[in-house]
Specification:
The structure holds two protein chains of two kinds. By secondary structure, chain A is of the alpha/beta class. Chain A has helices spanning 54-61, 84-89, 107-112, 125-139, 154-167, 184-199, 211-217, 242-250, 311-319, 341-346, 367-371, 389-402, 418-431, 448-463, 475-481, 504-511, 516-519; strands spanning 14-25, 28-39, 43-48, 69-74, 77-79, 92-95, 172-176, 203-208, 220-225, 228-234, 272-280, 286-295, 300-304, 326-331, 334-335, 349-352, 382-383, 386-387, 436-440, 467-472, 484-489, 492-498. Chain A is built from 17 helices and 22 strands. In chain B, the strands form two sheets. Chain B has a two-stranded antiparallel ribbon. A two-stranded antiparallel sheet of chain B has the order 2-3. Classes of the chains: A alpha/beta, B mainly alpha.
């Protein structure tokens, strides 16, 4: 069967539909009889927890996968995409979380790269630039067509991806969690553009698991749970609040734990202190610049920022995995020897890295091995040079029960769900009763229920007196959990705010490199 | 939708354990069948040749003893390769490490020849360990402190080691060279060990060289070290994920050096065993032609670097070598035997794929059971990338 013929544009209500789409991978049915319609002129949210089948569905719609059963229809006609190129022909484009742009080329060059409307003809730079500028104008997405990609911010690069799709004739645009890399302001701007596209008659599919965004932006929502459509709603006619959407996603009510800020945070000496810490990345570029922070026992300090602004290096320097170029890290007033993760951990520092599986956990080893990843040197776990397995198993069992992890001691970490793996990691780190707990993006990619149990664990650890540094790209999470918020941008701390009563907009200004004065905030 | 037959590989979520055990023997049988075709096509009688191979490797008087002698260095170099390859450190320098180990062991053997067997053997083994370690340490230190690729350095060192051997025996009047007689001065050769320093052999119908027993004991020891000691735990963590190892406070550079030294020591013992068990003097040409170090890599890879199984694979490869050595003659060129060996090694190595993937012919992946429980849903998303690759492969095939 050939690919979609010429899409019958403008005659049918639906641009793209899925009918009874089923797709199985070994061991799991990712999509099970899914029906989905992306209508002209609407922003349609595809909502679901991780592993609920959102991405699989979109990969079927864009020709990356072929369904085991069911059909994809374009303009009402069944099509069988054999490759993404077929989907392009039909006007369906997807903007992935990872952009495919050549950073040394200009915007216009990237737009025509690999695809030129007039195949074989010479690249007419000026004409392309004009067209890109026109499209940018049309959707209110300002990008200079002559700019080099590497000079652009993440938000601008995303716009280039979107313009690229429209230049190539997109009628249906699928965006995979587009806001995960954006500041609140950039997200707002993106929403304006997406609304504009819908009002011009295009279809926008918006994949997300952020409930508030969905209710703010979208016309319709389809919720997936375990590969099936668990609910849908027309937000133009019915009012469904975030709580209702969450119920559809997880099948029950969810109320996120928040930090109660009624009890005062312990006074006294900071448990963790960074003094003028600078560090460089592996490629020698500046990762941290003159960072000064302190966290008191029982306090949660949130570090907010757009991904890639030095957060990874911050965690690594504190944990001793990266050497600082200047400044020092102090635990209870004592400077830590730089570049020595063992010393940091022996002195009471626990660290949940952003890269959980691969750094925080060894995926090919058992849960039991991972539970003693740091404590295998303890005398009570072994005899002489030997490790005593029953003792390791007993400790593992205790941890699994205490932290409510589903999984057995001898299963491989690789086989755990993301949420359970993260619980194993947190269980190990928290059970060492650390003075200081550094956690990086602790709930990213987790489903709502796992997210909630991780939040609870963090709050409990703080209640027991641990000083917690919460590095997260999820501003909502920081606002819910942290006592104070330090905003990081390009490796610098732009300012520290009291979390109580902080306006996300203020934080956003700092995230983009603004100062406290710009944000109109009063420094604590 | 039009039905199109498709053939593609699908990853098994959990390779069944029995399959991992069963595939190597099956692969050997299939390889023998293909080898039979090759022999038949070249106008020979495969049944006859296989019978002769079995006889000369196992059943003839003394044949199995010779197989064990051939297996001994492979067992030790196999362990040497396994311990580093598991850590994703590619020490392909067992060849050179073996030679330097043999040089020092030969010196120890000739110098302390009359001091009582136990003492000489201990000293020879220690000398072999030192030699192997020194040669491995060069690559290890360069890797850790200069970030030099160990594949290149160990490979280069493999070229240097035989040159040292040749220099000691052929181009100098070194301590190793036999200068006691006129003929030895004209036709250079190394000093021979005193007979009191020959390593013992055990058994009557089947003679087991001491080196083989030592190698088997080391295989068992290594197995327990990796499985049950703190050092082994560090190895397993770093092997699985170096980043996790660093995170856990393991001094990864130090660990890498230790593992390289251990590997060099095992190769060095293989060198000592060649002197003590087999040749009783340095034989540069034989050592160079034997390529024990490289064959050891194949021996280890055959059983996926599992220390205990290396005993079996070393005997298998040793048997093939032994049979090949005995069978070669005007009616059976060595190359044809090499072809057969190659087919076996290739198929066993490739059989790993069938243990991890399943071949699917026809429609897409099987409809799986409904309702993935909590854990599996996320697992699927974790393996999604792999699944995607394969379904893409299927789509384009």
């Amino acid at each position: 069967m050939t690919a979609a013929g010429a899409p019958t544009r403008d005659q049918d209500r639906h641009t793209v539909s899925a009918r009874g789409v089923t797709k199985a991978f070994p061991g799991v049915v990712a999509n099970d009889g899914v029906d989905f319609d992306a209508d002209r002129g609407e922003v349609h949210a595809l909502l679901g927890e991780n592993g609920s089948g959102k991405t699989t569905l979109c990969k079927i719609l864009t020709g990356l996968y072929r369904p085991d059963a069911g059909q994809v229809l374009v303009g009402g006609d069944p099509v069988a995409f054999r490759s993404p190129a077929d989907a392009y022909e039909a006007g369906i484009f997807m903007v992935h979380q990872h952009f495919s742009l050549v950073s040394s080329m200009t915007v216009a060059e990237n737009v025509v790269l690999g695809w030129h409307r007039d195949k074989g003809r010479v690249f007419n730079r000026r004409q392309v630039e004009e067209e890109v500028a026109r499209a940018a104008e049309r959707f209110d997405m300002h990008v200079d067509p002559r700019a080099i990609i590497s000079r652009l911010s993440v938000g601008e690069r995303q716009r280039v991806e979107i313009l690229k799709a429209f230049y190539r004739g997109a009628r249906t645009l699928i965006l995979d969690e587009p806001t995960s890399v954006l500041t609140p302001q950039e997200s707002e701007q993106l929403f304006v553009s997406l609304r504009r596209m819908a009002s011009e008659g295009e279809a926008v599919v918006f994949i997300s698991h952020k409930l508030d965004e969905v209710s703010a932006l979208c016309d319709r929502v389809t919720v997936l749970r375990q590969g099936q459509v668990s609910g849908s709603a027309d937000l133009r006619t019915t009012s469904v609040d975030a709580r209702g959407l969450a119920r559809m996603m997880v099948g029950r009510d969810i109320a996120f734990s928040r930090r109660s800020r009624s009890q005062p945070v312990g006074e006294g000496e900071p448990a963790l202190e960074l003094r003028n810490v600078s560090a460089v990345d592996d490629d020698g570029t500046t990762a941290l610049e003159d960072v000064t922070l302190s966290v008191r026992p029982g306090e949660i300090l949130g570090v907010a920022g757009v991904a890639g602004n030095g957060q990874v290096a911050l965690g690594e320097v504190i944990a001793g995995l990266r050497r600082s170029t200047s400044g020092d890290v102090r635990l209870r007033g004592e400077p830590l020897p730089p570049g020595n993760p063992r010393a940091a951990s022996d002195r009471g520092l626990a660290y949940v890295p952003e890269d959980r599986i691969g750094t925080g956990l060894a995926p090919g080893l058992t849960v039991a091995d991972n539970c003693v990843l740091k404590s295998y040197r303890q005398r009570q776990l072994g005899r002489g040079p030997f490790l005593v397995k029953p003792r390791i198993l007993a400790r593992t069992q205790r941890l699994l029960e205490a932290f409510n992890v589903k999984g057995t001691a001898d299963s491989l970490v690789r086989q755990l769900s993301g949420g359970n793996a993260q619980k194993v990691l947190l269980a190990r780190e928290i059970s060492s009763e650390p003075q200081v707990l550094v956690v990086a993006t602790p709930t990213r990619g987790l489903d709502v229920s796992a997210m909630e149990s991780i939040r609870k664990l963090l709050l409990e650890a703080a209640a027991r007196g641990a000083a917690i540094l919460l590095i997260s790209e999820d501003l909502a999470e920081i606002l819910d959990l942290a006592d104070r918020i330090a905003v990081i941008s390009r490796g610098r701390i732009q300012g520290v705010l009291e979390a109580d009563g902080t306006d996300p907009e203020q934080v956003g200004v700092l995230m983009m490199g603004g100062s406290l004065e710009d944000a109109g905030a009063v420094a604590p | 939708m039009q039905w199109r037959p498709e053939i593609h590989f699908e990853r098994r979520l959990k390779p069944p354990r029995w399959l991992g055990v069963a595939t190597p023997p099956i692969a050997v049988i299939v390889a023998l069948a293909i080898g039979a075709l090759v022999l038949w096509a070249s106008g020979r009688d495969p049944v006859d040749i296989y019978q002769r191979m079995v006889r000369s490797a196992f059943t003839n008087p003394g044949a199995f003893s010779n197989t064990l002698i051939a297996a001994t260095p492979l067992l030790l170099t196999g362990l040497a390769a396994a311990i580093t390859f598991r850590m994703k450190v590619w020490n392909i320098g067992a060849d050179g490490q073996l030679m330097i180990g043999a040089v020092l062991a030969a010196a120890a053997g000739t110098y302390f020849g009359g001091q009582g067997l136990a003492g000489v053997m201990t000293l020879m083994i220690l000398a072999g360990i030192v030699g192997g370690c020194v040669w491995a340490a060069i690559a290890a230190l360069l890797r850790v402190y200069m970030n030099t690729n160990e594949v290149l350095t160990t490979l280069m060192l493999n070229y240097i080691a035989p040159l040292i051997l040749f220099y000691l025996i052929f181009d100098s009047t070194s301590y190793w060279r036999d200068l006691s007689s006129q003929s030895a001065r004209v036709f250079p050769q190394a000093k021979t060990l005193a007979t009191e320093a020959f390593w013992p052999e055990y058994g009557t119908t089947v003679v087991v060289p001491f080196g083989f027993i030592l190698g088997a004991a080391l295989a068992v020891a290594l197995f327990f070290v990796v499985r049950s000691t703190r050092f082994g735990f560090q190895m397993r963590v770093s092997a699985d994920s170096p980043a996790a190892g660093r995170y856990a406070g393991i001094r990864t550079g130090r660990l890498l050096i230790l593992v390289m030294l251990l590997s060099g020591a095992l190769a060095g013992i293989a060198g000592a065993s060649q002197i003590g068990d087999v040749s009783h003097r340095l034989e540069p040409k034989n050592l160079q032609l034997a390529v024990f170090g490289y064959t050891g890599i194949a021996v280890a890879a055959l059983v996926r670097y599992h220390p205990l199984s290396i005993i079996v694979s070393a005997i298998l490869v040793g048997a093939l070598n032994n049979a090949g050595f005995n069978l070669q003659g005007p009616d059976l060129p060595l190359g044809l035997i090499g072809v057969n060996q190659g087919i076996i090694l290739l198929l066993v190595a490739a059989s790993e794929v069938t243990a991890r993937y399943r071949l699917v012919i026809g429609r897409r992946s099987r409809r799986c059971d409904r309702g993935p429980p909590d854990g599996e849903a996320a697992e699927a998303s974790a393996t999604d990338g792999a699944a995607a690759e394969q379904s893409d492969g299927g789509a384009t095939s």
